[in-house]
């Protein structure tokens, strides 16, 4: 252990000293997220060894098969965060409606929207999966939190983060003061600061998309991805295609290396597949805090106020220059489009 390596707790407490407005309550909430992550990590990293893999036989509200680890992750986050006395209400990818804090627990002033185990369909193949969380201030004044408390735009977030479970489990979060990454050290059971102040490259050379959906993509996205594949050394093209089908893993790689994650509307999901509240908004907060960007193709992702807990959105997320160019293609105003018209040929 490098001398002076900071644990997550030490780091958060130092942040609190330098941010007098930060309340101890908020700090303790972040620490409980880390505790829940450690408990989930303990099972995920040995999923192949304990009888926890596999399906419950149930379908969630999205018609997706529920993995037993999904349920465990959801229940763990609900129990640990709900018993902090800091929450007014929670919302989870696994539950259709809002999730009240456990019976008898004090109702607090924060809201947590979370995806307990994103990418869990990859578990059997030992692909990295993740927990994504978003912390907001409650809007309502008293009593149990409501749907209104959960349905807030991303710019209202106080904190956002993800835990990526795998050979090296990491917790990455922001409270609006940069993005910081912590690697779990099992021998002492602590998340240790390993990636202070993460900055994503202004432009990357990776695009992440499920090209199986190409035929049903909007025309602008087809043009954009075709353009990324063209040979043009000065602009670093062709980009490399990297897609593992687990949002947290694809996002984390692109955050560190640079690049863009693309999930447009498709025939199966015309509004896109990923959800605003507990996928788009928290990762958009992290991307922006690291110098990147996030859009739905028309708006800044963090400006979207979802009309329902599980509202889906097209998602373009990553390096600022790449997201900007993607949006220009979507809106038919990228210079390459005019150039191809003059040349009388399509981009590709
Ligand atoms: P597709 C996993 O199911 C997930 O929600 C994200 O983790 C991932 O980025 C996406 O769906 C993959 O979707 O349609 O490419 O399989």
Largest sheet: 8 strands, mixed
| Mean pLDDT over the residues | 92
Shape: globular
Q: SSE order, as H and E?
A: HHEEHEEEEHEEEEEHEHEEHEEEHH
Structural class: alpha+beta
What is the helix content?
A: 25-40%
What's the name of the CATH homologous superfamily of the largest domain?
Answer: Fructose-1,6-Bisphosphatase, subunit A, domain 1
| Whole-number count of domains | 2
Amino- and carboxy-terminal Cα gap: 51 Å
Low-confidence stretches: none
**Any ligands, ions or cofactors bound here, and which?**
6-O-phosphono-alpha-D-fructofuranose
As laid out across the biggest beta sheet, the strand order is: 4-3-5-6-7-8-9-10
Total of DSSP H or I helical runs spanning 4+ residues: 9
Question: What this model shows, in words?
Answer:
With 348 residues, this protein is α+β, with helices and mostly antiparallel strands. The chain folds into two domains: 3-195, 2-Layer Sandwich (Fructose-1,6-Bisphosphatase, Chain A, domain 1); 206-347, D-Maltodextrin-Binding Protein, domain 2. Helices cover 30% and strands 23% of the residues. It has nine helices and 17 strands. It has helices spanning 8-18, 24-44, 68-82, 147-150, 219-228, 247-257, 276-289, 320-330, 335-343; strands at 55-59, 65-67, 87-92, 98-99, 110-118, 129-137, 159-165, 170-174, 179-185, 190-195, 206-208, 240-241, 260-263, 274-275, 293-295, 312-313, 315-318. The chain has an eight-stranded mixed sheet with strand order 4-3-5-6-7-8-9-10, sandwiched between helices. A five-stranded mixed sheet has the order 12-11-13-17-15, sandwiched between helices. Strands 1-2 form a two-stranded antiparallel sheet. Strand 9 (179-185) and strand 10 form a beta hairpin. The chain is globular, with a radius of gyration of 20 Å. The termini are far apart. Bound molecules: 6-O-phosphono-alpha-D-fructofuranose. 6-O-phosphono-alpha-D-fructofuranose binds at residues 118-119, 121, 210, 245-247, 250, 273.
């Amino acid at each position: 252990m490098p001398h002076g390596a900071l644990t997550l707790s030490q780091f958060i407490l130092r942040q609190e000293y330098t941010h007098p407005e930060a309340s101890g309550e908020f700090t303790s909430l972040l620490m409980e997220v880390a505790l829940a992550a450690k408990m989930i990590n303990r099972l995920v990293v040995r999923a192949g060894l304990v009888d926890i893999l596999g399906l419950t036989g149930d379908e969630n509200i999205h018609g997706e098969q529920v993995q037993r680890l999904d349920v465990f992750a959801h229940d763990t986050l609900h129990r640990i965060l709900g018993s902090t006395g800091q929450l007014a209400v929670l919302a989870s990818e696994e539950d259709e409606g809002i999730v009240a804090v456990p019976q008898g627990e004090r109702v607090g002033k924060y809201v947590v929207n979370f995806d307990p185990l994103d990418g869990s369909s990859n578990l059997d193949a030992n692909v990295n999966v993740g927990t994504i969380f978003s912390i907001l201030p409650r809007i309502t004044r008293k009593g149990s939190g409501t749907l209104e408390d959960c349905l807030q735009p991303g710019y209202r977030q106080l904190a956002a983060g993800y835990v990526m479970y795998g050979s090296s489990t990491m917790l990455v979060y922001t409270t609006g003061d940069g993005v910081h990454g912590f690697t779990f050290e099992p021998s002492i059971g602590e998340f240790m600061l390993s990636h202070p102040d993460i900055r994503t490259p202004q432009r990357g050379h990776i695009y992440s998309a499920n090209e199986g959906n190409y035929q049903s993509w909007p025309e602008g996205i087809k043009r954009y991805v075709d353009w990324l594949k063209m040979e043009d050394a000065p602009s670093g093209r062709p980009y490399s295609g990297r897609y593992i089908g687990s949002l947290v893993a694809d996002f984390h790689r692109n955050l560190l290396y640079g690049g863009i994650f693309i999930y447009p509307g498709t025939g199966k999901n015309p509004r896109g597949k990923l959800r605003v509240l507990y996928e788009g908004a928290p990762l958009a907060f992290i991307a922006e805090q690291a110098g990147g960007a996030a859009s739905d193709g028309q708006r800044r992702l963090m400006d979207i106020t979802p009309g329902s807990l599980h509202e889906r959105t097209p998602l373009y997320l990553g390096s600022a220059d790449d997201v900007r160019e993607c949006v220009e293609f979507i809106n038919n105003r990228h210079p390459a489009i005019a150039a191809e018209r003059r040349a009388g040929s399509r981009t590709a």
